[in-house]
Design brief:
Layout lengths: L3 E2 L5 H6 L4 E2 L1 H11 L4 E7 L4 H13 L4 E10 L1 H6 L4 E4 L4 E4 L10 H26 L3 H9 L2 E4 H6 L5 E2 L19 H16 L11 H20 L6
Parallel strand pairs: 1-2, 3-4, 4-5, 4-6, 5-8
Antiparallel strand pairs: 6-7
Helix pairs in contact: 2-3, 5-6, 8-9
Length: 238
């Protein structure tokens, strides 16, 4: 499980940008193939879509066989929730887990803003359930950790019950901080969805070059601008 956690209908856009991403469908296909055998889930993800993360967590918890989740780099935000689904949760001595409050964007008057704040607070409690079930910690303590955006190295994660075992048993090592997952901006997603997808669905145009040079140049420039942005700025939506 690498890269950004995305919904099924967003996965192809990340692939178009050559970005690693994991969707619920990816996980469910593997679980179907495993057919009850033990499954090991390697996680190196900065998180992503909270609903996709919840769907993956639920699928793993519902699986009839044994699930072993292994944090090999970072399990942050939605990915940290997914990590909690393991019957056994392992972590590399050089990996980290990060938990924080759910993020979103909203617009409107003060009533809309208050409504969105209430929704986020409610979903924080929902997310905290995954950490609570795994660690046995008190909900208030977990919510405080989420408020503070808490980073846990391997030793801290084990002490608090987020993981069962530190891989290789190398002792108390400090670990390097990892960056958040990069989530595509909505305007980029919409541009690609509205321009590329119709051509892929039209068999007449599948093997033809786009006849609108201006749109092609615009899309190409958007991709260049995005890649420049990716190199200097990191965003995450949980």
């Amino acid at each position: 499980m690498k890269g950004t956690i995305v919904s099924n209908d967003m996965k192809w856009i990340y692939e178009w940008f050559d970005m690693e991403a994991t969707s619920p469908r990816d996980v469910m296909e593997v679980l179907d193939e495993a057919n009850g055998e033990e499954v090991e889930v390697e996680i190196n993800s900065g998180g992503g879509d909270v609903f996709a993360g919840s769907e993956i967590y639920t699928a793993l918890k519902d699986y009839q066989g044994t699930i072993v989740t292994k944090v090999v780099g970072i399990a942050a935000s939605a990915a940290s929730v997914i990590a909690m689904a393991g019957d056994r949760v392992l972590i590399s001595p050089t990996a980290q887990i990060m938990i924080h409050n759910v993020w979103s964007m909203a617009r409107g008057d003060y009533r809309a803003m208050q409504h969105e704040a209430d929704v986020l607070k409610n979903y924080n409690v929902t997310i905290a359930n995954a950490y609570k079930l795994k660690s046995g910690m008190d909900e208030k303590e977990i919510l405080k950790m989420m408020d503070d955006e808490t980073w846990l190295n391997a030793q801290q994660a084990k002490e608090k019950g987020f993981v069962d075992e530190i891989l290789f048993d190398e002792g108390n090592q400090l670990v390097a901080s990892a960056s958040y997952g990069f989530v595509l901006p909505p305007e980029v997603v919409n541009k690609v969805r509205n321009y590329i997808k119709p051509q892929q669905q039209d068999p007449v145009n599948q093997n033809q070059e786009p006849d609108d040079d201006h749109k092609q140049a615009e899309l190409y420039q958007a991709r260049l601008n995005f890649l420049k942005l990716k190199g200097g700025v990191s965003h995450e939506v949980d």
